[in-house]
Amino acid sequence: MNATTDKIWSLLEEVTDPEVPVLSVIDLGIVRDVKVVDKAVEVVITPTYSGCPAMDVIAMTIRMTLLQEGYGPVKVSTVLSPAWTTEWMTERGKEKLRAFGIAPPTPLQQVCHTQLFHRDEAIACPRCGSYHTRMISEFGSTACKALYRCEDCREPFDYFKCH
Amino acid sequence: MQTRQALIDYTLHLADNALILGHRNSEWTGHGPILEQDIALSNIALDLIGQARLFYQYAALLINKTPAADPTSPLNHGTAVTEDSLAYLRDAWDFKNCLLCEQTNGDWGKTVLRQFYFSAYQFYLYGEMQKGKDATLAAIAEKALKEVTYHLRWSSEWVIRLGDGTAESHARMEKAVGELSRLTAELFLPAQYERSLAEAGLAVDLLPLRSRWEQRVREVFEMATLSGGAGMLTGGKEGRHTEHLGYLLAEMQFLQRAYPGCEW
Which end of chain B is more exposed for a tag (fewer CB within 10 A), N or C? Predict the structure, then answer.
């Protein structure tokens, strides 16, 4: 990795997810590769969910950020395989999520099976830390989140579900 | 060349399935029985339309690399085909979605049953497709399978909840089974393009999927105390649709037909 590539990776730390603004694209783990030839840059990203409406905005923001820094032409391309997983989210990203009030994904993929009426995962409330929480809906405000409620502090919260 | 055309048809079939069912589900947005389930179904719609986009983008790539045999084809006006032109500028007879996907929403029971039948089908289909020889289709399937797993679990739970619920919800589910089960045979009856591609390992061989799908439906119906039903109506995969598709397209495509190329 040369100095320019390093610089671009650090610039990408500034590009955030429009729906979860505390997370950068690096925290999310969606940047798969950065290729540089002179001033020409190609950034390879992978979508979180097939229909995630934030992806177009993210690709545009990456382009704008790099163009503003004097790079160009800038190409943002997409790769689908291997499929994105929340395991690629950085620990720093998970910490930022928690501080923002969203429970971060658990490290084990407990819910990615077809077993019906499974026991709710033990998700810690991002506000009070209690594990006495209950799932309200598997689908929250966005495809990547589920809706939970803390039975101790009674606050509802989003859980960034493992995927 | 023939394989290329079959691959285009197959990819469009996969895209049309996802778009049409996704669009149907999106008709519930703002009308769901409770807020959380309104959001759940809207999220499923979003996943399906996202999958449709990936398939349409691939189909557009294949089409643009192939000169159309028919020079009068609307897909051959000198401009490149895009995911949008494929979704918005084809007519009902060009759509290759299964009849199940285009059926009207009916009540909540019919909608969740339609989703259950189709998610169970997609679950086994994508499970095989991710091992297929076409790298792009395999990558889309690998990605989409994770989403479909959620859809299958969510819809199974609703089928059980309503089937094994009150006398009213049970009766409505039985009615939905009566309306929809006859459309399920088509899922496993390969169209010509599926047959020719399956031999080359480019499309999923549907026949072995059927028993796995039936097994899953039986298990869920048992818990839901529902009786099964047999399927017979076919034709969607080859462009012969029920009357419902035309109305759906009229609404979905209106803006692009009235204001061609409009953007905002």
Answer: C
B143, A47: Cβ pair inside 8 Å? yes
Residue of A nearest to B219 (CA): A116
What distances in angstroms separate CA B242 from CA A51, A115, B190, one per listed residue? 27, 34, 19
- What is the pLDDT, as a whole number, of residue A144? 85
Give ipTM to 2 decimals: 0.83
Cβ contact, residue pair A53, B146, below 8 Å: no
SS3 for A34? strand
- Residue B170 near residue B103 (C-beta atoms within 8 A): no
Rounded to 5°, angle at Cα A125 from A121 and A128: 150
Grade residue B73 by pLDDT with cuts at 50, 70 and 90.
Answer: low
Whether residue B80 is predicted with pLDDT greater than 90 in this model: the reply is no
User: In chain A, where are the structural domains located?
Assistant: 3-84, 87-160
Does A163 touch chain B if contact means CB atoms closer than 8 Å?
yes
Find chain A residues with C-beta within 8 A of B121's C-beta. Answer: none
Nearest to A83 among B47, B123, B143 (CB): B143
Prediction pTM value: 0.89
Tell me which residue of A58, A140, A48 sits closest to B147, measured CA to CA: A48
3-state secondary structure of A89: coil
d(CA B181, CA B235) in angstroms, rounded, equals 15
The CATH number given to B2-258 is 1.20.1260.10
**Domain A3-84: what homologous superfamily?**
Fe-S cluster assembly (FSCA) (3.30.300.130)
Alpha-carbon gap, residue B42 to B18, rounded angstroms: 14
Q: Which of B47, B135, B160 sits opposite A50 (nearest CB)?
A: B47
The nearest CA of chain B is from the CA of A161 a distance in Å of 11
Nearest chain B residue to A138 by CA distance is: B40
